[in-house]
Specification:
Bound molecules: 5'-O-[(S)-ethoxy(hydroxy)phosphoryl]adenosine
CATH superfamily of the largest domain: ANL, N-terminal domain
Number of strands: 30
Helix content: 25-40%
CATH topology of the largest domain: Rossmann fold
CATH architecture of the largest domain: 3-Layer(aba) Sandwich
Shape: globular
Strand content: 15-25%
Number of domains: 3
């Protein structure tokens, strides 16, 4: 197998860092790889099934189907199951609005609400397999509607509330969603985000949309189209109190979630029900040691996969209490998050390195004002965490008491793949390393030919066996599914990430191999960005590179050539900056734009991205150790020098 589970050293580090020998984990991981089917069947028995499976795994590469023949329901799993126990009267959701309002929902209240919401969907004629788009702020109605969809076998597609009308339309048209659920507005830094108006603009481009359901959040007047738009409250008036959960097949899609890849359009990642739930139930137990008494706060937006698995499906399937916070992290004061941890007694806190770096800048005096002693465990996700941020997080948030689980995963993997597993057995942590693959995950690092790399050598992270949380497909694009994940190293899942293992076998993630940026943990495709900018009539060509950013991890830098006769100007620059915002959303706003005479290309016409990246980041050409496949060193040097000159002179424009 080639696994080295690290040394058995008991370290002399402080408590949270100190871990015990990893024997139990090693035994479990080995067993899971030797007999994956037996291993996962045992895990699957922890869930409630209406009917157990006929086959554990149907693996016809590149398609894996788990627990085939089994029937279950995700809403039953996350809600109904708890209502039959003492958990009926315990907290399921602590919600806090940006302005400080609170709502606390017990599992029995959640049960009542999901039933009523499911009844609303049924009133509108929603049936099993229909796609429903959710464009909502972080309010309890968002998870409730997700669970209501799951209850009747409808497939939700959540669209991040920071996305633009065009981004909504792309997603709705791809899934052919019949209904969009939105709100009259959302709050961000005290301002109202006009979600309904943005939805109206999007709906004009979406012929499949029959109905729009509107939740009252701000109370501001919004236009309502007669016959198409419905206030949720008026539909709830007519709702039934009980809707029987649909016993769907294990392989029935639970949701479609769009994410950026190397093509111009985001990919609709499809997740199933049985495999996804089993995987998430298990990995949250291993990585976070989550229990029914946990108060779990994942700060992601529900619009990303982290929110799907870590806010909704995994913690609720464990009967834990989740915290849902509506607003900006540092609003109205920069200790808002620390105040929330103290107020609700959060025990497990999960956030991104970008957030940690931002709070590090504000200073430790802010967390120091609060009693954070309820915390037991901290998590990090979305991008590599630099050791400095790790140490700050460990010391000032975790009080040198809480282990940090640095969790590596992707929209496509459905749940956490590589991470420490204190829920199985603590091990020695190394700041900046995700440590090891979780049980059932056969990860390794290979060279360009697919041979396993020796320790210390950077290579490609691949997964050699299917796992239950693995995506089912790309919605409506099976060839893209095959091509994106299964063609680079046949038989193995290609993650698109660089990684390295050290002498102790620990994994270190080293960034993306492809044309995907991670800006503040958000995944943005360079081609999507470029398409947005090229739509400007004055632009001939546009290419994006990323530049290291002390807080956001990466920032977006554009190199643009203009059409003949057009001169660069600061107003043109402003228009260009505005375009990705309009087409994608504010998270895609370029940080810098350079006008250049030409873009560096290989002889076959491919843009030399590494040259752009080196110029954008101010690295020397000597840093371009591995050059673009098809370009000569001389070509690269020339291109680099001419661009360098432009970027130097156009700074400050
Ligand atoms: C990156 C987010 C380093 C990685 C759950 C991956 C990470 C991409 C980590 C997926 C981590 C995620 N350390 N890099 N702990 N976690 N990544 O689909 O490049 O938004 O491929 O899923 O984020 O991003 P996605």
């Amino acid at each position: 197998m080639g696994y080295d589970y690290g040394s058995d050293r008991v370290s002399s580090l402080p408590t949270g860092l100190r871990m015990w020998p990893s024997k139990r984990y090693a035994e479990m991981h080995l067993r899971s790889l030797q007999n994956p089917e037996g291993f996962w069947a045992e895990e699957a028995r922890k869930l409630d099934w209406y009917k157990t499976w006929d086959h554990i795994l149907d693996w016809k590469p590149p398609y894996a189907r788990w627990f085939v023949g089994g029937r279950l329901n995700a809403c039953h799993q996350c809600v109904d199951r708890h209502v039959k126990t003492w958990r009926r009267s315990k907290v399921a959701i602590y919600w806090e609005g940006e302005a400080g309002e609170t709502r606390v929902l017990s599992y029995s209240t959640l049960f009542r609400e999901v039933n009523r919401f499911a009844s609303v969907l049924k009133q509108l004629g929603v049936r099993k397999g229909d796609r429903i788009a959710l464009y909502l702020p972080m309010v309890p109605e968002l998870p409730i509607f997700m669970l209501a969809c799951a209850r009747i076998g409808a497939i939700h597609t959540v669209i991040f509330s920071g996305f633009s009308a065009q981004a909504i339309a792309d997603r709705v048209n791809d899934t052919q969603a019949r209904i969009i659920i939105t709100a009259d507005g959302g709050y961000r830094r005290g301002n109202i985000v006009a979600l309904k108006e943005i939805t109206d603009e999007a709906a004009k481009l979406c012929p499949s949309v029959e109905k729009v359901i509107v939740i009252k959040r701000t109370g501001e007047p919004v236009p309502m189209a007669a016959g198409r738009d419905w206030w949720l409250s008026s539909l709830l008036d007519k709702s039934e109190m009980l809707v029987k959960p649909e016993a769907v097949e294990s392989t029935h899609p639970l949701y479609v979630l769009y994410t950026s890849g190397t093509t111009g359009k985001p990919k609709g990642v499809v997740h199933g029900t049985g495999g996804y739930l089993v995987f998430n139930h298990s990995v949250y137990e291993w990585a976070f040691n989550i229990r029914e008494e946990s108060v779990y706060w994942c700060t992601a937006d529900v619009g990303w996969v982290t929110g799907h698995s870590s806010i909704v499906y995994a913690p609720l399937s464990h009967g834990a209490a989740i915290v849902l916070y509506e607003g900006a992290p540092d609003y109205p004061t920069v200790d808002r998050w620390w105040d929330i941890i103290e107020k609700y007694g959060v025990t497990i806190f999960y956030t991104s390195p970008t957030a940690v770096r931002m709070f590090m800048r504000y200073g430790e005096e802010w967390p120091l004002k609060h009693d954070l002693s309820s915390l037991e465990l901290l998590g990090s996700v979305g991008e590599p965490i630099n050791p400095e941020a790790w140490q700050w997080y460990y010391k000032h948030i975790g009080g040198e008491r809480c282990p940090i689980v640095d969790t590596w995963w992707q929209t496509e993997t459905g749940g956490i793949m590589l991470s420490p597993a204190p829920g199985i057995e603590p091990i020695l942590l190394k700041p900046g390393s995700v440590t090891f693959p979780l049980p059932g995950v056969d990860a390794t690092v290979v060279d360009a030919e697919g041979n396993e790399n020796p320790p210390g050598q950077r290579g490609f992270l691949i997964i050699r066996k299917p796992w239950p949380g693995m995506l089912l497909d790309i919605y409506g694009a099976p060839e893209l599914y095959r091509e994106s994940y299964w063609s680079r190293f046949p038989g193995s899942y290609y993650t698109g990430d660089f990684a390295m293992r050290d002498e102790d076998g620990y994994f270190w993630l080293l960034g993306r191999t492809d044309e995907v940026l991670k800006v503040a943990g958000h995944r943005i495709g360079t081609v999507e960005l470029e398409d947005a900018v090229v739509s400007h009539p004055a632009v001939a060509e546009a290419a994006v590179a990323s530049k290291p950013d002390a807080v956001k991890g990466e920032s977006i830098v554009f190199f643009v050539t203009l059409k003949a006769g057009v001169s660069p100007s600061s107003s043109l620059k402003k228009e260009i900056v505005e375009l990705p915002r309009r087409v994608i959303g504010a998270i895609a706003t370029p940080d810098e734009v350079y006008f250049v005479q030409s873009l560096p290309k290989t002889r076959s016409g491919k843009i030399m991205r590494r040259v752009l990246k080196a110029v954008a980041s101010g690295q020397s050409v000597g840093d371009l150790t591995t050059l673009e496949d098809e370009a000569s060193v001389e070509d690269v040097k020339k291109a680099y020098q001419s661009l360098r000159k432009v970027s130097d002179t156009s700074k400050g424009n």
